[in-house]
Amino acid sequence: MFGWFKSGGDDKTYSPGELRDALRKQDGAFVLVDVRENNEWAGGHIPGAIHVPLSRFATAAATIPKDRKIIFYCQSGIRSKKALNQARKLGLPADGHLGGGISDWRRHDLPVAR
Questions:
Q1: What's the 3-state SS for 28-61?
Q2: Record: fold of 12-107
């Protein structure tokens, strides 16, 4: 409405189904990054994801592989969008984020690892 949620142009918002399909392919084309905090990660995360909390993103971003596209997710999609923007500023190959976050992922009865 007022540009508050304006996209960064090429940013892709993945649906749970689209992300599930990408994970099934397992072709190594992307890395999935969970930007939630430690207690949230411990409560369950998407299988195959790596953990880089948004609160430590600037210092921990160096641990994210740079040879693949990066897809971020969080609880609801807000922090993952922030991570996407920060990653772009750092020159990382950020591709998009999971709209609705892991909450939407769970609503679709998709797998969660602990």
A1: CCEEEEECCCHHHHHCCECCCCEECCHHHHHHHH
A2: Oxidized Rhodanese; domain 1 (3.40.250)
Q: Which two tokens stand for residue 3?
A: 């540009």
Out of 52, 54, 71, 74, the active site residue is 74
For residue 74, indicate whether it is catalytic. Answer: yes
| Chain segment 28-71, per-residue pLDDT in tens | 789 999 999 999 999 999 999 999 999 999 999 999 999 999 99
pTM of this prediction? 0.89
Domain ranges of the chain: 12-107
Where residue 109 falls (left for φ over 0; alpha for ψ -120 to 50; beta otherwise) is left
